[in-house]
Amino acid sequence: MQIHSAEFETSSADLESCPPESLPEFAFVGRSNVGKSSLINMISGQKKDIAIVSSTPGRTQLINFFNMNKKWKLVDLPGYGYAKTSKSQQEKFQEFVTDYLLNRGSLKCVFVLIDSSIPPQAIDLRFTQWLMQSKVPFVLAFTKADKAKRGAVERNQDAFMLAMSEWCDGLPRFFTSSAKKRDGRRSILEFIDSAVRGPKKK
């Protein structure tokens, strides 16, 4: 898939203010400071960044919709687990993100971003377990593969999948990415393209 256009559509503070359901949506979410904005910009492949990359974690506080090729939408969800965010703000994020994930009919798949340069984090495992229990379709995108040696990245990935296997019968598909080296872009876009096209007719 080639990205010919990536246009910001709108930001929403709750499910009711989200744009009308039309095109297939692919949501990106992860722990704050996981490199979500960098990955989104890498995927879009535009000369000008579509997502704001900040040195301060937790900057995304709304659901941001981007129209890609006028065929599907990339949805940037607020990050979770930023300690300096107030408890009331965390609860607000959790409420409207949960509402979106459970009730958005046009949502096709969630990309859960995991920092591959560090060992598995309990908050990420809890979130993936909740998605599984809630029957929300998701895949994993291991980010920052350039921040650690290949062996360490693979050990962290294996450890995460092993932890998931304790409560997950069928492990989700995963991608390894590096925004800096543009690794993983092609495989992620091929996955999205296949999901947009749907199953082949026999």
- What is the fold named in CATH at topology level? Rossmann fold
Count of discrete structural domains = 1
What are the secondary-structure elements, in order, as H or E?
EEHEEHEHEHEH
| CATH H level, superfamily name | P-loop containing nucleotide triphosphate hydrolases
Mean of all residue-level pLDDT scores:
89
Name of the CATH first level: Alpha Beta
Low-confidence stretches: none
How many DSSP helices? 5
CATH architecture: 3-Layer(aba) Sandwich
Structure description:
The chain contains five helices and seven strands, in the order ββαββαβαβαβα. The protein is an alpha/beta fold and 202 residues long. It has a single domain, classed as P-loop containing nucleotide triphosphate hydrolases (Rossmann fold, 3-Layer(aba) Sandwich), CATH 3.40.50.300. It has a seven-stranded mixed β-sheet, sandwiched between helices. Strand 5, helix 3 and strand 6 form a beta-alpha-beta unit. The protein is globular. The model has no long low-confidence stretch (mean pLDDT 89).
